[in-house]
Specification:
By secondary structure, the chain is mostly beta strands. 7% of the residues lie in helices and 51% in strands. It is built from one helix and six strands, in the order ββαββββ.
């Protein structure tokens, strides 16, 4: 895959932990942990995908270059379009290496569901 296919810049963000003043750790604001150029491929055709579209949610496969930090992405994270901060994605499935060559990772994300 050439770099020309990666037209979207995504920030992968994780919630920070903060002290609530009573010694308890609570979820704080999202903080950017990974920035990556991505190719977004929309999922099409299946019944769950059609149902998600009716609810204003669009699932995508985000393909990014593999790195140690990118392999840490879990479903507790979210993705944000760096060029349009209003466009957020929930990470539905963790990063997978579909070719086993450790060059690219594919992450299942869904637009319209992240906070």
């Amino acid at each position: 895959m050439s770099a020309g296919n990666k037209r979207v810049l995504l920030w992968f963000q994780e919630r920070s932990l903060q002290d609530d003043g009573f010694g308890n750790m609570i979820a704080g604001e999202f903080e950017t942990r990974v920035t990556a150029a991505a190719e977004l491929r929309p999922l099409r055709g299946s019944e769950p995908v059609q149902a998600a579209r009716l609810q204003g949610q669009q699932p995508y496969i985000a393909k990014i270059r593999s790195s140690a930090k990118a392999r840490d992405i879990t479903t507790a994270w979210r993705a944000v379009d760096a060029r349009n901060n209003d466009r957020t994605f929930a990470v539905i499935a963790p990063a997978t290496d579909d070719t086993s060559k450790n060059a690219f990772l594919e992450i299942l994300i869904q637009e319209g569901t992240a906070e």
